[in-house]
Amino acid sequence: MTVIIRGVVVVDAGGIGAAASDVLIDGERIEAIPPTGTLDPGDAHVIDGRGRLLMPGFVDAHSHADGALFDPEVQLALLRQGVTTVIGGQDGVGYAPGDGAYATEYFAAINGPHPSYRGGGVAALLGAYDGATAVNAATLVPAGTVRFEVMGRSTDAASPAELARMRALVADGLGEGALGLSTGLDYAPGVFAGTDELAALAVPVAAAGAVYVSHMRGGYEANSAAGIAEVAAIARSSGARVHVSHFHAEPHLVRELLTDLDRAGVDATFDAYPYTRGCSILAMPILPASLTVRPAAEVAAELADPGIRAMLREEWFPTITGYASLGPEWPSMLTLAHVAAPDYDWAHGLTIAEGAAEASARSGGSIDAIDFALDVLVASRLEVNVVMAVQHERSDAGLAEILSHPAAVGGSDGIFIGRHPHPRARGSFPRSLAMLVREQAALGWADASALVSARSVARFGLGDRYAVREGFVADLVLVDPDAVGATASYSAPLGLGVGIDDVLVAGVPVLAGGELTGATPGRGIRRAAVDSAAPGSGPLVSHRTTDIAGPVGDEWSRDIAEEEEEV
């Protein structure tokens, strides 16, 4: 297929191009970028790009669309944000290796089931995306799933033999194209893995030149220092580059802890989204991991037992108030986003406290927050997720300070399961662009392109997708700089992004006029270095009239130069 994009302003991490250019795409790659009006359209498909920016496709560096990506509504939600590639296998829980049953049950309210994967490892999982979706998908090797495959539901430390088997599974996954290793150190069974175990699993990651990616231990926010210290220890022991998942805390703390990593000689990046509140399975912050590591049916049966409830009320619930800075008012800080039980369909969008009050009114009795939360978990067989507030909401200026850090990459942590989900799944990328560039003036458009595309491509090894340049893969997004923004909010979380109406994946229009075209050129992306010998490689700013300015741009240019020298 031949496509011409007319009269567009080309923007990538290298800078901003001339006032208007034509872009010729032949097959899956960019063929030429001549002055505007010089291309004979012939039989080409022509897209009018006047008044819009043409940017490399956005990469969601932390996504939970693993199983949902085959749903056209999810594809539409991603493409309306400009996302052309998602990275799954996050938080230590994913379908591969193994048959996917553990992840499907434990993360039922986060990833949900995969429609076709039933085993075969990372190669089979990535293969399932080839030609089956409009959006590309990559994956990490999830350390919790690896532990489950070798040790089942054990809470013990790994033996040397078990550790060797786990390392072999990690190496196999990397060899089949995984981008790195992920951990979820607040989830079961990953919470039971010690620092030495994690460092050992990161050794094959370092050997492969991949990335150790961590949902840190302890709930983030004010507890982040301990998590960062563990990340640093793992990096120093293994030699692996590291990436911190959804790093959210007060801006000064984020800066200080990243500076600590830099001073320790740790090569680190992080992802963040432009919202303060979090989202996770309800069982994680309110139940002990020693219980939730068991099969969901067994946990539900335990929670239905009055004696177990009394024990949890007396011995466990008083200990959970420090998690993620929830505080003793946690019932008012957790909003039900997804409840699998039809009997509680009415509770979507209510806090646990509000739900308890409504349940009391409906029953004519008195149901407190603890009993209500446990009732919902039992009825749903634990398939419940919640939006989690924090003690102090950050301002847009504070969020911009985090996202404009030179080590930041764009990641939504988007969960598409639920009637009242977190708005980050549908709003993260357009909200980031509107807030950072237009409203807070924290970044220019070239810097923003580095955030949402180029840094992730280089960090995770996604090939030649980081620039709008001849010879590069034509994963491309047309952005209206004056209109781009999010409509999703905490109260109305299903709104789609605006200002992005045309998107191409591998040179094929997949979004046109804001609607899906029905084309499915997406593929499972296997890890690859940025190839200095690839067509169109060379100086990143070779066709730019305006170079990127400021410390972010300077650092990015150095990173790309170093990356290409390494290859």
TrEMBL record:
Residue stretches spanning the membrane: none
Gene3D superfamilies xrefs: Metal-dependent hydrolases (3.20.20.140)
Cross-referenced Pfam families: Amidohydro_3
Region (Disordered): 536-567
MF annotations from Gene Ontology: hydrolase activity, acting on carbon-nitrogen (but not peptide) bonds
Domain Amidohydrolase: 46-509
Organism domain of life: Bacteria
PANTHER family: ALPHA-D-RIBOSE 1-METHYLPHOSPHONATE 5-TRIPHOSPHATE DIPHOSPHATASE (PTHR43135)
Protein name: N-acyl-D-aspartate/D-glutamate deacylase
